[in-house]
Amino acid sequence: MPHVIRIHNIQLLLGLGMTAHAKLGASKAHRWITCPGSIAAEATLPDTSSAAAEEGTAAHALAELCLRNGWAPEKFLGKDVEGTVVDEEMAGAIAVYVDYVNSLRGDKLIEERVSFSAYAPGGFGTADALVFHEGMLEVVDLKYGKGVRVDADQNAQLMLYAVGAFTEHGFDFQVDTVRMTIVQPRLDHIDSFEMRVKDLLFWADKVVRPAAKLALSDNAPFKPSEDACRFCKAKAQCKALAEHNLSVAQLSFDDLGPEPLELPEPHLLNAAQVSDLLPHLDGLVNWASAVKEHAMSVLSAGGIVPGFKLVPGRALRRWGDEQEAEERLGDLLGDEAFVTKLVSPSQAEKLLGRKRAGEISDLITKPQGKPQLAPEADPRPAIGASAFDDLNED
């Protein structure tokens, strides 16, 4: 049985608990600033958790333990931290974050609760790390997830942490500039963004304050967008999002573009039309998936969705008793009953542990990843034609 570790930090001492959330919280700022109506819509729905969310909670707890006590994440291998057993992957990822924070000079506050209620009534959040040094405040945020890359540029969550931290501590440290840094170790991603304090406070006054007022009003407007709706609890039932996506799906090409587009063939899209469509597709697909998941949850709970039912999906055959199958197939087929395969680099590193992983680094290569579509503003370099040739050869 792994040793169970629980974090009891200042939030618990204040009676807030680890799950306390402000209605206008920093972590959802990108949502309620863009779509003020999302606050009321989500308030009607229960909080849900997931394996990824629980893993993220454990990762943050491990990071806090290590930073507060000067411990290495490897110290907790095999131990249960906030309901998750720490493995090599988590220890290695948190080591990247801990090393980054430890590399910074200055006065540090770890898991610090900050309030920005002067701009958003009742608004507060918990900053993973705040570092004050020579007129600079650095807000460091750990992102343990690897599904969506998070960038620091104009990141509303980190900007609100910075607003709260400056309001409470900035004058003591004569802060003039704020740097906001995202550390997302499982995507090998560390990204920073800087701005002057005067510009940060201008944003808080001119953007956050009116958005917060709207979000708390009786008839807060809905303004669907891909970013705001991606993780919204209400997206599967949101009428505004449904109307938005259905209107996008029904747009003519005259609506999409500034000028009518001539098709070279009646059944083919030209490059300009494809370009017009691409920005809308991810939002449509994500929304459609959420609607299907909601319908399945209603039916699974015994509810009714007129015209639909749950049926068994496709299933793969498997051995009823694997040990019995192994013995009989061994007699029938001999060595042909078994397949062996070399472990992957990630599996090998996990087996060796961080201290010995370097012994195989010269054996590992990282080929070009599968091409992905991205807008021109994406900071990653474009793939040239020669790279596609290499991928085709592989």
Main attributes of the structure:
394 residues; alpha/beta; Lambda Exonuclease, Chain A; 5-stranded mixed beta sheet; 3-stranded mixed beta sheet
In a nutshell, what does this entry contain?
The chain is α/β, with parallel strands linked by helices and 394 residues long. The protein has helices spanning 10-13, 29-34, 38-43, 51-69, 88-103, 156-170, 197-215, 226-229, 239-249, 253-256, 271-300, 322-333, 345-352, 385-393; strands at 4-5, 80-81, 84-85, 107-115, 124-133, 136-142, 177-184, 189-196. Strand 5 (124-133) and strand 6 (136-142) form a beta hairpin.
Largest sheet, spatial ordering of strands:
4-5-6-7-8
Helix-strand category: alpha/beta
Helical stretch tally: 14
CATH first level of one domain: Alpha Beta
Poorly predicted residue ranges: 6-20, 260-266
User: Roughly what is the average pLDDT, rounded to an integer?
Assistant: 83
Number of strands: 8
CATH topology of one domain, by name, is Lambda Exonuclease, Chain A
